[in-house]
């Protein structure tokens, strides 16, 4: 009996995140070969070959990702490059008919994110965004409880994330960052709010500053926003890069019947407070049987038709890109900005994000 050929995979950007994702993909039991990789820094390709234990076709020019895609008969492409480059990389890969795994933030800007999502839909290929929290028990369980109506109608939220974030290398360069910390680690927190609640972003108003330990950086480091979601729920999103010490977060979702709370201060736990009794319940955490382990696993299993559900399709990338764009524009203009006005640029509206 003929054996199935391994998936032929090519990577664009083989730095920290890229190398980690590529190693996971290459180790998937369903079979994936890294046949080519592009990085403008050749030492990253040397390191990747060491990590994999085998070599591949190498591309090192800034536009060489195009030749990599054209020359290697790839099935799938991974995009792990600085934020503002994602757009040209993903457009080329989609046009070439490749399945795509792309790091967050998918593409910067509401209109461009909508454009690439429509392109992918037309091609009918697989596209998945690397938001790994969709595969983590506290967030997954919170989404499930909200969907089951456990906290009633969502009326409010508080989303806080702080990280010692100096904006090193390209992250500190406006040409590549696409919106500083709000667009970097902050992207995950916008995503889990929208994903857990299954609501769309409607408007934002707030402020950003570029200070890190007293130094004025070229990109946005700290942000505080009042955000409104499609059902009228309103709340605060606070994303800070200027904190002494390590990473911490605190996410609370308020509903008509109770609150869900998860935070690094509580550890790996999900707490449910009941409005009627004010009692706090520690929710047991587990993932459903057969749920993919991570975005890389989901990607390979989708290509191999071992699972049917894409847990982070591109539409989640558009929702987040729209909210990020809305917050950035609000801070830059000093006014309340609606997502609809940004989506209009792509001939779209909120209903296209559903
Ligand atoms: N999901 C997560 O938790 C998570 C964590 C870290 C990083 N990321 C994301 O991964 C992406 C990369 O971040 P990183 O931390 O790995 O950065 P990095 O600097 O370690 O890696 C980026 C790589 O892209 C390469 N590169 C730059 N321009 C290129 C081009 N034109 N063609 C090919 N390669 C090019 C760089 O040389 C570098 O090796 C970003 O989108 C980032 O937000 C996600």
Q: Which superfamily, in CATH terms, is the homologous superfamily of the largest domain?
A: Dihydrodipicolinate Reductase, domain 2
Number of domains: 2
Q: Estimate the mean pLDDT confidence.
A: 97
Instruction: Give the cofactors and ligands.
Output: nicotinamide-adenine-dinucleotide
Distance between the termini: 44 Å
Order of helices and strands: EHEHEHEHEHEHEHHHEEEEEEEEEHHEH
Outline the biggest β-sheet: 9 strands, mixed
CATH architecture of the largest domain: 2-Layer Sandwich
Q: How would you describe the shape?
A: globular
* Poorly predicted tracts of residues: none
User: Approximately how much beta-strand content do the residues carry?
Assistant: 25-35%
How many beta-strand runs? 17
Rg from alpha-carbon coordinates: 20 Å
- The strand order across the widest sheet is 16-15-14-13-7-12-11-8-17
Structural class: alpha/beta
Write down the CATH class of the largest domain.
Alpha Beta
Q: Helicity, in percent?
A: 25-40%
What do these coordinates show?
The protein is of the alpha/beta class. It has 2 domains: 135 residues, NAD(P)-binding Rossmann-like Domain (Rossmann fold, 3-Layer(aba) Sandwich); 195 residues, Dihydrodipicolinate Reductase, domain 2. The protein contains 12 helices and 17 strands. The strands form 3 sheets. The protein has a 9-stranded mixed β-sheet with strand order 16-15-14-13-7-12-11-8-17. A 6-stranded parallel β-sheet has the order 3-2-1-4-5-6, sandwiched between helices. Strands 9-10 form a two-stranded antiparallel sheet. 48% of the residues are buried. Nicotinamide-adenine-dinucleotide binds next to α1. The site of nicotinamide-adenine-dinucleotide has 26 residues, from α1.
């Amino acid at each position: 009996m003929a054996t199935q050929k391994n998936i032929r995979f090519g990577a664009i950007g083989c730095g920290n995140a890229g190398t980690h994702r590529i190693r996971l993909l290459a180790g998937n039991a369903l079979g994936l070969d890294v046949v080519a990789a592009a990085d403008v820094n050749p030492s990253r390709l040397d390191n990747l070959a060491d990590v994999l234990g085998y070599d591949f076709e190498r591309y090192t020019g800034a536009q060489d990702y195009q030749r990599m895609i054209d020359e290697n008969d790839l099935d799938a492409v991974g995009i792990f490059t600085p934020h503002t480059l994602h757009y040209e990389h993903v457009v080329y890969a989609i046009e070439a008919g490749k399945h795509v795994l792309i790091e967050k933030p998918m593409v910067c800007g509401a209109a461009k994110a909508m454009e690439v999502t429509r392109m992918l839909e037309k091609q009918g290929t697989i596209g998945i965004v690397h938001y790994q929290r969709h595969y983590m028990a506290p967030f997954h369980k919170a989404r499930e409880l909200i969907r089951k109506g456990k906290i009633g109608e969502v009326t409010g939220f508080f989303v806080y994330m702080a990280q010692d974030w100096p904006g090193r290398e390209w992250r500190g360069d406006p040409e590549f960052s696409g919106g500083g910390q709000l667009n970097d680690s902050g992207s995950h927190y916008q995503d889990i709010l929208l994903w857990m609640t299954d609501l769309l972003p409607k408007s934002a108003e707030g402020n950003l500053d570029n200070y890190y330990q007293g130094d004025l950086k070229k990109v946005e480091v700290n942000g505080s926003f009042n955000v409104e979601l499609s059902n009228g729920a309103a709340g605060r999103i606070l994303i800070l890069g200027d904190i002494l010490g390590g990473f911490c977060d605190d996410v609370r979702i308020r509903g008509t019947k109770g609150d869900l709370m998860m935070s690094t201060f509580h550890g790996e736990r999900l707490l449910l407070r009941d409005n009627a009794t004010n009692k706090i319940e520690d929710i047991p955490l587990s993932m459903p049987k057969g749920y993919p382990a991570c975005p890389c696993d989901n990607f390979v299993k989708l290509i191999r038709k071992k699972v049917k559900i894409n847990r982070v399709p591109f539409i989640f990338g558009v929702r987040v890109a729209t909210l990020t764009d809305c917050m950035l524009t609000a801070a830059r203009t000093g006014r309340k900005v609606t997502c609809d006005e940004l989506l209009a640029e792509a001939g779209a509206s909120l209903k296209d994000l559903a």
